[in-house]
Here is the input.
Amino acid sequence: MKDLTSSPHQPQTDDVANSNTKSGILRAGDIVLIVSRDKREFFVRLEPGKQFQNHQGVLEHDNLIGQKWGATVESHLGYAHLLLPPSLEQLIRNIKRNTQIIYPKEIGYILMKMNIGPGTRVLEAGTGSGGLTLALARMVMPYGHVYTYEAREDIQSIAIKNIENFGLTEFVTFKLRDIETGFDECNIDALFLDVREPWLYLDHVHAALKGGGFFGALLPTTNQVADLLYYMQYQDFGFIEVEELFLRAYKPIPRRLRPTDRMIAHTGYLVFARALLHQD
Ligand SMILES: C[S@@+](CC[C@H](N)C(=O)[O-])C[C@H]1O[C@@H](n2cnc3c(N)ncnc32)[C@H](O)[C@@H]1O
Here is the structure.
């Protein structure tokens, strides 16, 4: 369990897969987004007998269980706290990380472009902090599976913890190795690479994918995109697309509606393709 009071500016994600808010009531095991009156955000998994503590006092989990989603409760010091169900986007933005993660704006698009849904068998590398892994697992459950490869143990251990915290372990197989030796799986529906030199592994990618399977990659520079496109010419890939996404937030003030002052100007380029059967 993470220390939820350690860094109020970095919202805390302990545990997640809070998909069941249908009853309208907070239950043990739910992940709740607690927002303090000064707009600080904390993600907490409700466990009977436990306490949540921040700079504005203590909330007993037992007093939160049974509350309505959207309710406001007071800490022992009398400070108001709002109880909200977190979105997948909020959870991904706030996972523990020791690598750059793929941004939710790209993740949402990747899921659609690669036709990820319940039952999909998907392969990814590198795992990194597990940001994409989390979204993939949430989408493929309960019938599908995610196989995720990572070369570095110290990085993989954070991702394993993140996926455990989200209650999604049964949908993910973690592999600790460099993908230069290939993948164990075949007949895969979709394969995504978030590694520096994806063109080195195109043979392995093609061998793992089923005919017509979806390939995707994220690359931070156009030089890398050009290298990938160059090497893809020598493989049986078709329907190649290169895309970039921009997301601009607005200040939600009715009489002065305008973009926020700052935006993330660059995240990465997305390359998508389909694996074609080899024609002699
Ligand atoms: C940018 S991170 C991936 C982030 C991840 N997509 C996420 O959303 O959290 C890239 C990861 O790829 C791993 N990696 C790079 N080359 C690799 C290779 N050849 N085999 C396996 N992992 C590799 C790195 O160790 C690093 O953890």
In short: The pocket of S-adenosylmethionine is lined by residues 99-102, 125-126, 128-132, 149-152, 155, 178-180, 194-196 (CB under 6 Å). The two ends are 56 Å apart (CA to CA). The helical segments are 61-64, 88-93, 104-113, 131-140, 153-165, 202-208, 222-232. Confidence is low (pLDDT under 50) at residues 1-19.
